[in-house]
Amino acid sequence: MHATGVVAAFETYIGLVEAGVGLLPAGGGLKEIARRTAAESFGHDLYPMLEHYFKKVAMASVAGSAKEAMDWGFLKANTDVVFNEHELLHVAKAKVQFLHQKGHVAPAEEQTIRVGGAPAIANMEMILANMIEGHMISPHDYEIAKRIAIVMSGGYVDADSLVTEQYLLDLERKYFMELIQMPKTLARIEHTLKTGKPLRN
């Protein structure tokens, strides 16, 4: 999600699925969602796009193709899609050489990312409350999804606050460490390692 350029096979199955093992994406995925939402919602309400991403991540949804991943926003709109997966490396190498010839340098870390803050978290918690009342998620699912909402929304700050990329990465790490110490998360990880299937505890 962070790369300047992406080359994907048409049959790419992609998602931020860590919630399935009781964790949240802590490799910068939620930071990138917050950053993209701010960039693409310039001058508009952040919440509709945040809610879209929140549902995909909290439910560990997996896109069934590169096209669907682009529609969801997990892959950028300028992603190069290759129908023959055996050509992937060739096309990716050509793309890297093209970027090099253009003089590409890594972008500077962004210091001003507009976030949804506490109001966005409250809206997502309302969705979760309805789901738990309807027995669609477990109490532990609620704990995981709530932390996902907090990170994506930039924490308990005012709506439209400006934060840095590092601040969002620090939030990711904080809530990842909270989740990984919970017995139910450890049970999910152990069960998935043994069976290859998720545990709904």
Can you give a write-up of this model?
The protein is mostly helical. The chain has a single domain, classed as 2-enoyl-CoA Hydratase, Chain A, domain 1. The chain is built from 8 helices and 4 strands; from the N terminus they run E-H-H-H-E-H-E-H-H-E-H-H. The strands form 2 sheets. Strands 1-2 form a two-stranded parallel ribbon. It has a two-stranded antiparallel ribbon with strand order 3-4. It is globular. The two termini are 30 Å apart. The mean pLDDT is 94.
Give the arrangement of secondary structure elements.
Layout (H helix, E strand, L loop, with lengths): L6 E3 L19 H12 L6 H12 L7 H7 L7 E3 L5 H14 L11 E3 L1 H17 L5 H14 L8 E3 L1 H16 L2 H13 L6
Parallel strand pairs: 1-2
Antiparallel strand pairs: 3-4
Helix pairs in contact: 1-7, 2-6, 5-6, 6-7
Explain briefly what this protein structure is.
52% of the residues lie in helices and 6% in strands.
